[in-house]
Design a protein that fits this description.
The structure is a homodimer. By secondary structure, the first copy, chain A, is an alpha/beta fold. Chain A is built from eleven helices and twelve strands. The longest helix of chain A is centred in the first third of the chain and has 28 residues, at 59-86. The radius of gyration of chain A is 25 Å and the shape is globular. At the A-B interface, α4 of A face α4 of B. The structure holds a DNA duplex.
DNA sequence: CGGCACCCACAACCGACGGTTATGCCATCT
DNA sequence: AGATGGCATAACCGTCGGTTGTGGGTGCCG
């Protein structure tokens, strides 16, 4: 099975036509046509049935689709990896963090770092945990910052700071004098809430604890990011449970209270085990840790 | 990144030399040499350092190794899949089962089926669960028989028979009259046992329950298959917990007792959701179910 | 219905790439 | 020193992947 056939098959299935595939691969349409015939020849069964001048994938072709999509993905990943290996590591600091942390914490740390190392080039990405893991493994970035546990995948991680889940509410929801008092989770019973659908350990933990409250809080709106939850809460959509960074950093007018049942959240730096952190990188993490701790103090 | 480069890289790393790789790929050594240079050219960094006339993989090359091995595996799988798709389905019955079930149960069913359908060609493989899953997905076999839960992976499964874990011992271990009496798990405390290291749900379950016994059973020998455990037990190595099929079917002289704490084991048939079972296949499963039930009665 | 746009297949042609054989150099081993 | 094994280079060649050009079929419009 030639790789060319795989690419072509993939291109035809994603564009829907042979000419489209040819354009995608930057070859002429007859070349694609010939290659497709060769592929079918080679395989011993037709991949597409020519019906009314169009290509329609065969049953057998569809059986191979998942496999071929995977291979294309792998090839693409390898491409990324190899270019990142080839690129001279002139960038001493490439950071990827979750959207939550990109709100204020990481920009603050980067700004401060820029003053100390004015000539250092810095790259900052925001990604969710799966993409972050890929980015690190494929050497597109060197440090990941997340609230998730990522000790799987063969990555090293280092705890920077501990905090705990907070409850946020529209302004005026609680009397001012109660804001420092931890809120028992039972107080959420029957309350209108913004649900978090994010598929990570923290989301599951929240979900589990909320499920025990009786009567269950009423969540009509479900969102994927903590930041969105903030915006909705500020507009009176109800309460929400969010990580402490989002709670502190949000620009929205919000009330924030700790939860009595302390649900820990840890800010972690993640990096590859084979490349120890250089001076700029460790300094950066120092700043992040410092800012985080002062933020949660 | 040409596929040829990937194959070559893989071949060099697995044979250790360029000429070896060339032989593996059925090309001449100069061709391999040129291709390798092209690959390094294309990537922008050397894959091997030529030291004293030999090739030594670079640090960068080793970074790509896992990825490339995966891709080669995927390509190989695709190859298998496509040939199995191409092959006209002249084999109405291709079965794969675990070694345990291949002992007597499956051969019995096949023998009986052969009398009813004397002209049917039958293929029988024995594989462990991961390989079984692959074999089914790649259409090398049509039905899998296992004691594992394989509802993941998008496969359908059908329960054929239920049994429970048994304790086996060397002959004369227990008085004859006790053999029907269920043994409480606490009776295993401090006993010499054969450990099972098989990495499946059942193995974990056994491990979990044994961990609770105080004092813990003494397992000096660990084996990977239930059959091996039988052999060792028969030779006086101690007790063991095994699935009921192994317990009943073993040719070794053994004593078998049920466990008081009933740990269920289910015999399952697994198959692809897209290809419903034909007549021969359902008949075969009927026989397996029948034999299994009579065996465990 | 004619015109048009789109899509696929076939033919003829060409350059580059993947392969070959032959040879030389270097290191290691006896 | 000679033999052996491994890699690189050179010269050569056929095939394969690409091109342009063309034709036929289908569907959509005026």
């Amino acid at each position: 099975m030639r790789l060319r056939y795989i690419e072509l098959f993939h291109a035809v299935l994603s564009t829907g036509s042979l000419t489209g595939a040819a354009n995608l691969l930057n070859i002429s349409q007859p070349a694609a046509s010939k290659a497709l015939q060769q592929a079918e020849n080679h395989l011993g069964f037709p991949l597409f049935s020519r019906v009314r001048g169009r290509l329609q994938p065969t049953q057998q072709a569809l059986l191979m689709r998942h496999h071929i999509d995977r291979i294309m993905q792998e090839m693409y990943d390898l491409q990324r990896l190899s270019t990142n290996i080839a690129r001279p590591e002139s960038h001493p600091l490439r950071v990827t963090c979750t959207p939550t942390l990109a709100q204020t914490l990481v920009p603050d740390a980067i700004a401060r770092l820029g003053k100390v190392y004015p000539d250092t080039s810095i790259e900052l990405y925001t990604q969710h945990s799966a993409a972050m893991c890929e980015s690190l493994m494929l050497r597109e970035s060197d440090i990941g910052l997340t609230l998730q546990d990522m000790s799987r995948h063969g990555l090293l991680q280092q705890s920077l700071c501990d905090g705990s889940i907070m409850v946020i509410a529209p302004p005026g929801w609680w009397p001012e004098r109660d804001l420092a008092k931890p809120l028992p989770i039972s107080a959420l019973a029957g309350q209108p809430m913004i649900g978090i659908t994010v598929q990570d350990a923290m989301g599951n933990m929240l979900h589990g604890h909320l499920a025990e409250v009786e009567p269950a809080p009423r969540a009509h709106v479900w969102v994927q990011t903590y930041q969105l939850a903030c915006s909705l809460v500020a507009r009176g959509g109800g309460l929400a449970l969010v990580d402490p960074f989002t709670a502190r950093c949000s620009k929205e007018p919000l009330q924030t209270r700790p939860l009595k049942l302390q649900l820990d959240v840890t800010l972690r730096a993640v990096y590859r085990p084979d490349s120890p952190l250089n001076g700029v990188q460790t300094r950066f993490l120092d700043y992040v840790r410092e800012f985080a701790q002062s933020l949660l103090a």
